[in-house]
Amino acid sequence: MSQVNSTNKALVLEQEDKKTIAEVRQLAASDLPEGDVLVNIDYSSLNYKDALAVTGAGKIVHQFPMVPGIDLAGTVAESASPDYKVGDAVVLTGWSVGERFWGGYAQQMRVQSKWLVPLDKGLSSKQAMTIGTAGLTSMLCVMRLQESGLKPKQGPVLVTGATGGVGSLVVALLAKNGFEVVAVSGKADSVDYLKQLGASEVLPRSEFEEKVRPLDKSRWAGAVDTVGGDILAKVLSQMNYDGRVATVGLAASFSLNTTVMPFILRGVDLLGVDSVMIPYERRVQAWARLARELPQEIMDQVSEEVGLEALPAYAQNMVEGKIKGRVLVNPNI
Ligand code: NDP
């Protein structure tokens, strides 16, 4: 017997006159895409990429109509895969879901089993999506820095875009791993929030928007940059000898105008971080570390829960850089 629900509410994107229209609709079973696993979705989340998709501010969606939502967590309702059975708790991030393939902003979605990861036993589906793609990516940044040899005793680590979904959790995870964390934020009222997450100091973004010199006074042993552009160029110019920078985002710009000086005179490493195509084993490893290292009070502190109807307004605020922390999406309210 099919486990497809008689009602399946979803946020659907259409394109009219090159504008993106977002509307909550009821999907029929026949509307769902092909896939070997049907998931009852408990939660999804709002990530920067989702905000670009829902508002149409960025070319994220490859074809319309599209159910966006680049991540989801829930339980298996139907499975033709030997790897999953009905009732299994699962999580999905990346693989172009919500961009090329229908995603998590629905009560049920049919997906490919190879995209799924079993939900770590230490996490609920709500916690998994409080973490979401942004949190998984934060952990990948920390893993990349640690695997490159960065140790707390080497000096402070800078985090840009620190109140964002990725930035907030990078601050918390680095602090949890014993690093001294210096946060950079454009929000004047974010100092208490960032200090509660574990930052020892919060610097205004304006300090990083001043003219970039090829080499500046060296200040940082490590950095995680979520914004790109001239801010990343500034960060590179301030790295200590042998410093390491994880580059993960483009909230300010996808361009990077810099010189070779930090690399050839200070031996700085620029480390790329991707969360979309990483292999299964690395996903499992990152989720297990997140379950161990992110305390519940941090998750409560960084998250706000919204339904599908309210999502487009939150997406607009995110594009405008006004959101603090993580937005948890509950399609069942
Ligand atoms: P958010 O919108 O939650 O956070 C971005 C933060 O960047 C904002 O909160 C703000 O922080 C800062 N910011 C926003 N606009 C600007 C600007 N014009 N100039 C400088 N700083 C700005 O997004 P996420 O945290 O979800 O994602 C951050 C970035 O990481 C995005 O570019 C996203 O696409 C990318 N990303 C990449 C992934 C990958 O696999 N490589 C996966 C997930 C995300 P503040 O006000 O504190 O300065």
Explain how this protein is built.
The chain has 333 residues and is an alpha/beta fold. The protein has two domains: 8-119 and 302-329, Alpha-Beta Complex (Quinone Oxidoreductase, Chain A, domain 1); 132-272, 3-Layer(aba) Sandwich (Rossmann fold). The chain is built from nine helices and 15 strands. The strands form three sheets. Strands 3, 4, 5, 6, 7, 14 and 15 form a seven-stranded mixed beta sheet that branches. The protein has a six-stranded parallel beta sheet with strand order 10-9-8-11-12-13, with helices on both faces. Strand 1 (9-16) and strand 2 form a beta hairpin. The longest helix has 23 residues, at 125-147. The mean pLDDT is 95. The site of NADPH dihydro-nicotinamide-adenine-dinucleotide phosphate has 33 residues, from helix 1, helix 2 and helix 3.
Task: Find the CATH superfamily of the largest domain.
Answer: NAD(P)-binding Rossmann-like Domain
Provide the CATH topology of the largest domain: Rossmann fold
Which structural class should the secondary elements be placed in? alpha/beta
CATH architecture of the largest domain: 3-Layer(aba) Sandwich
Q: How far apart, in Å, are the first and last alpha carbons? A: 26 Å
Name of the top-level CATH class of the largest domain: Alpha Beta
Binned, the helix content reads 25-40%
Radius of gyration: 20 Å
N-to-C SSE string, H for helix and E for strand: EEEHEEEEHEHEHEEHEHEHHEHE
> What is the count of DSSP helices, taking H or I runs of 4+ residues?
9
What is the approximate shape?
globular
**DSSP strand tally:** 15
Bound molecules: NADPH dihydro-nicotinamide-adenine-dinucleotide phosphate
Q: Which ranges are low-confidence, i.e. pLDDT below 50, for 5 or more consecutive residues?
A: none
Number of individual domains: 2
